[in-house]
Amino acid sequence: MCDIATSYQVTGMTCGSCATKVTTAVAKVAGVTGTAVDVANSTVIVSGHVDDAAISAAIADAGYAATRV
C-alpha cells in the first residue's frame, strides 16, 4: 500500500516553533507516516492514509487553522 501525500495551508504558522507544534500534533493522528513543513509558504504535507477532518482538528488543537490545498 502506498502512502498518499496531502497538502494543507496552515494559517498563523510563522516560525520554527510553530512548525514543531504542527508537526507534533499531526504526527499523533492515526495513519500519519510522515510530515514535511514549509514555514515560508505556511504549508504542511502529510503522508499516510488519514482523514482530512482529523488532520484539521489536530492542527486546530495546536492553535492554528488548516485548509486542504
From TrEMBL:
InterPro entries: Heavy-metal-associated_CS, HMA_dom, HMA_dom_sf. It comes from the Bacteria. It comes from Jiangella alba. This is Copper chaperone CopZ. Keywords: Metal-binding. Residues 4-67 form the HMA domain. Transmembrane segments: none annotated. The keyword Metal-binding applies. Pfam families: HMA. Coiled coil: none annotated. One of its GO terms (molecular function) is metal ion binding. PROSITE patterns: HMA_1 (PS01047), HMA_2 (PS50846).
